Amino acid sequence: MRIRIVDAFTDRPFSGNPAGVLLLDSFPDDHWLQKVAAEVNLSETAFAHPLPAGGEADWALRWFTPSTEVDMCGHATLATAHVLHTTGLATGTVRFAARCGILGATAEDDSTITMDFPTSSLTPVTAPDGLAEALGAEVVSVHGTAAHIGDLVVELRDEAAVRSLDPDFAALTHLSERGVITTAAAERPERGYDFASRCFFPRVGIDEDPVTGSAHTALAPFWSARLGRDELTGFQGGARTGIVRTRLHGDRTLLTGHAVTVIDGELHA
Question: Which CATH number do you get for residue 182?
C-alpha cells in the first residue's frame, strides 16, 4: 500500500507541516486507521478514497492524529489534494466529503492549491484560569472558535512574544478546549506577512502543530476585522515554519499554499 509524506504550506522540503497521505479503495476499520496514524506519528495522517461519480464530492477524506480522529484539518487536506493533482488523479477542483462538510481544493496556475473551508465564528471569552501562566506570556484577548474547531484564539502582545513561547504543555492539557492558537500582528509587514501564529494541541497528542490550516479559518476573520482587508498572509511556526494566504469569501475562508512530497513509499500492514 502506497504512503506519502507531504510537507504542506511550504515550497521546499523539511519545512511547513508534514502529513501522511494514504489513498485507499475504501476505509478499513477505525482501529486500523488509528494504528497507522500512530505509526506515522505526524500531527495528522489523511486517508481518502474515491466516491461514485455524480455526487456532491469526489473523494471521502478523514484525518487522524497519533491518538484520535479530528473534525477538520487544513494541512493534511492540502497534502491530499497535492498528491491527487501531482499523480493525475484529479485536475482543477477536487471536492472532499469530510466530517466538517464538503471541502474544495483547486490547483492554481502558480502551483499552489486553494482550499475552500468554512469560516470559524469568534466569540470573546474570559481567559481560562492559568492560561497566561501555561503560556508564559501576557494575554491581550481570548476568543472561542466554532465547534468544528474547538480551540481558543489567544492574542499576545507582539510577534516576539509569539515566537518566544515555551508553553507548559501539561498545564495546557487541563483546558476544556482542544487547543490554543496564539497570534499577534506582524512586527514587520514588509517581510511579506500580516500576522504570526503558533498552535498548541497537547490534548490530542500534538504539543505544537507547525502550520495549521484549520486555525486560519479563525485567524482570517480575526485579523481581517482588525486590518480592514479580506486578503491576508499568515506566518506560522516555531522550529518549522510555513505561509498561509487567506481570503474571506462570504461564510467561507479560502486557504492557499504550496506543498511538496518528501517521501513516497510502501506501507506493509
Answer: 3.10.310.10
Burial class of 30 by CB neighbour count within 10 A (0 to 12, 13 to 18, 19+): exposed
Q: Are residues 146 and 89 in the same domain?
A: no
Whether the Cβ atoms of residue 78 and residue 45 lie closer than 8 Å to each other: no
Do residues 126 and 245 both lie within one domain?
yes
Set of cell numbers at residue 202: 497537547
Residues 126, 101, single domain; the answer is: no
Structural domain that includes position 241: 122-249
- The model carries a pTM of 0.96
Identified catalytic residue from 39, 44, 138, 177: 44
pLDDT tens-digit profile of 153-170? Answer: 999 999 999 999 999 999
- Cα–Cα distance list, 79 to 47, 173, 175, 260 (Å): 11, 28, 30, 8
Number of domains in the chain: 2
Q: Are residues 109 and 184 in the same domain?
A: no
Taking the CB of residue 127, how many other CB atoms lie within 10 A of it? Answer: 14
44 is a catalytic site residue: yes
Q: How does pLDDT run across 13-68, given as a tens digit for each residue?
A: 999 999 999 999 999 999 999 999 999 999 999 999 999 999 999 999 999 999 99
The whole-number average pLDDT for the span 160-183 is 96
